[in-house]
Write a structure and sequence with these properties.
The complex is a heterodimer of chains A (about 475) and B (about 130). Chain A starts with 7 loop residues before the first helix and ends in a 7-residue tail after the last strand. The longest helix of chain A is centred in the first third of the chain and has 17 residues. In chain A, about 30% of the residues lie in helices and about 25% in strands. Chain B has about 130 residues and is of the alpha/beta class. Chain B has a single domain, classed as Response regulator (Rossmann fold). Chain B is built from five helices and five strands, in the order βαβαβαβαβα. In chain B, helix 2 packs parallel to helix 3. The chains are: A alpha/beta (about 475), B alpha/beta (about 130).
Chain lengths: ~475, ~130
């Protein structure tokens, strides 16, 4: 049974099992009620009948008022396809048997496909013993499941793993809202799922104007996917000199990391790469620092005119202003754009933004591995810039040591001081399975474009930042 | 004494209406679903205020049952509900008035008074 909640059906491997029973648990404010209502309104929108029973003293109208800000909420479904009833008084006056009596009658009255009980914890506290709450859950899921009706039990606290409710139901979904550093992060975890595999572990989610959106961990969603073979076709980097140094350009489907400090020319190289956008090779700029207008100005400064390809749609600019973001939301947004456009040339300007968005830094390598695999599978050739912290110096921090082994190509860009003049230099550090020029070259920008010029063989140690001259009295 | 029967499964909503009616001076009977409300009809309420979405028997089913019973078919029924879309134009005619949740309590009290008149003063009585 699909939930229609973006990302959740992926985590659940297709959705909930029809006729199954599930506990949805989390502290107040975690998003349980929204999640359950989103599923309820989705199923009601398909013409199905839903029974929503509350064991809370909160008035339904108050709930409707809060839900009315979310786009899935449809008041015309209330009382027609979704029945909201309160069993609070029966719980207080007659105990659990009173609730069961009401729900049994309601389920029998009309064929329903979804039954939601909001307030399982209240029932839990009413129970005199473990056996009583066990019988309560068993009766409700039995009555509902008999007619193929799926049950959702909402609990406003995390019940212990050995609680009667957990042992009885077919699945347990945990919602949490946690503080990590200074930010608040919502997480969902499917802790138990009978009869279906699921994406285990924590996944981020957010509550948007459309309701809940779940972002499955990219590396979990694409787990087990074989690394696609690269095509033999080469794509021009957009810089003739660099193509020559690379042995013809970038291999189609490859992933190239441009590493260097701010201002050294990484973005310029990337802009040259996407400037070769065409109908056969649509290009996407996926950046974090410069909006479309600033980007066009930057391109113009090196003789590139982005207006025609943007107007024709062969070049798309996706600007993601820096701010709090979620790693998997960024990854999914990028992959969606790439799939929609059929991107062949992708420039990620500032791949470090992915690292900043990661709540858990230990995921970065697996994340990039999954992301790069998906891009390769899509036939996308990717160039990504990665900012190094030091303007000068010999250290060359890679994003993570293992990332170097994930990517096909690594190009290092550095500033070097030489006779009181700053030079920009470039060195190809890695090209997988291909011969390349190992010479350190100087980068020169101009109206006629970006050029590479070999350094005089007497200049050495440029990558350390302080170039040395073998013939010190002769400035070059 | 004029009695008003309030039928609502929602504890807070029911309490709000009951309090307002009692403050005004009406005697109030309570039920929490259509089925238990039918059982209260033999206490001869002068008017009924009912919700629509309730367990066991909803407000419309209850109102239709009342209309079918010649003992009570002239008792005015006010519907208060969030499920406006569920009530057809034809079914609306069964009700003396329909209020949408969230509702204005004073407007409901005004309608009650319009339909059955003001509460009768409590004569109390004396022992001597």
């Amino acid at each position: 049974m699909t939930t229609s909640i973006p990302g959740l059906d992926t985590v659940l491997n297709g959705g909930l099992v029809a006729g199954g029973s599930y506990v949805l648990q989390g502290r107040p404010g975690a998003g349980k009620t929204i999640l359950a209502n989103q599923i309820a309104f989705h199923r009601a929108g398909l013409g199905e009948k839903v029974l929503f029973v509350t064991l809370l003293s909160e008035a339904h109208e108050h709930l409707f008022k809060l839900l009315s800000t979310l786009s899935f909420f449809d008041r015309s479904q209330i009382g027609t396809n979704i029945q909201f009833v309160s069993a609070y008084r029966e719980m207080v006056t007659e105990g659990l048997d009173g609730i069961v009596h009401i729900i049994r009658r309601e389920i029998a009255r009309e064929k329903r496909t979804l039954f939601v009980l909001d307030g399982l914890l209240n029932a839990h506290y009413q129970a005199q013993s473990r056996d009583q709450i066990k019988r309560f859950v068993a009766e409700l899921q039995g009555h509902a499941g008999f007619g193929g009706c799926t049950s959702l039990f909402l609990a406003s606290a995390r019940l212990s793993d050995d609680s009667p409710e957990h042992t009885m139901v077919d699945g347990v979904i945990d919602l949490a809202d946690e503080i990590v550093g200074a930010r608040s992060v919502r997480r969902i975890e499917v802790r138990k799922m009978r009869g279906s595999s699921m994406l285990r572990g924590l996944h981020n989610f957010e509550i948007t104007d459309s309701g809940i959106v779940v972002y499955p961990r990219l590396e979990a969603a694409y787990k087990g996917m074989a690394e696609p073979e690269l095509a033999s076709e080469m794509l021009s980097s957009g810089v003739e000199d660099l193509d020559n140094a690379l042995g013809g350009g970038f291999r189609s489907g490859s992933f190239t990391l441009l590493m260097g400090p701010s201002g050294v020319g990484k973005t310029m190289l990337g802009l040259n790469f996407i400037s070769r956008a065409s109908h056969a090779e649509p290009a996407l700029f996926f950046g974090f620092y410069e909006g479309p207008e600033r980007l066009k100005e930057k391109a113009t400064a090196i003789g590139l005119d982005f207006d025609p390809p943007i107007k024709s749609g062969t070049l798309k600019v996706e600007w993601n202003p820096l701010g709090e973001d979620l790693l998997d939301r960024l990854g999914e947004r990028l992959l969606r754009q790439v799939r929609e456009q059929g991107t062949r040339r992708l420039f990620i300007d500032g791949a470090g933004a992915f690292k900043r968005a990661a709540v858990s830094q230990s995921r970065i390598v697996e994340f990039f591995s999954a992301l790069s695999n998906q891009l390769r599978a899509n036939g996308t050739t990717t160039v990504a810039s990665w900012e190094m912290p030091d303007l000068f110096g010999g250290s060359a921090d890679t994003p993570a040591p293992e990332i170097s082994s994930i990517v096909e190509n690594i190009i290092l860009l550095r500033f070097a001081e030489h006779y009181a003049r700053i030079r920009r230099v470039l060195a190809i550090m890695k090209v997988r399975d291909c011969d390349y020029d190992t010479a350190v070259q100087e980068i020169r920008f101009g109206k006629d474009g970006l050029k590479l010029a070999p350094l005089h063989p007497a200049i050495k140690d440029t990558l350390d930042g302080s170039a040395q001259d073998a013939a010190p009295h002769q400035a070059r | 004494m004029k009695r008003v029967l309030v039928v609502d499964d929602e504890f807070l909503v029911a309490e709000l209406i009951v309090y307002a009616l009692e403050e005004r001076g009406y005697h109030v009977l309570q039920a929490f679903n259509g089925k238990s409300a039918l059982a209260q009809m033999n206490k001869s309420p002068a008017l009924v205020i009912t919700d629509f979405m309730m367990p066991l028997m909803n407000g419309l089913e209850f109102a239709l049952s009342v209309r079918d019973d010649r003992n009570w078919n002239d008792v005015p029924i006010i519907l208060i509900s969030a499920a406006q879309a569920a009530i057809s134009e034809e079914n609306r005619r069964i009700f003396a008035a329909v209020f949408e949740k969230p509702f204005d309590v004073q407007a409901v009290l005004g309608k009650v008074e319009e339909l059955i008149g003001p509460p009768e003063p409590d004569r109390g009585g004396t022992l001597f």
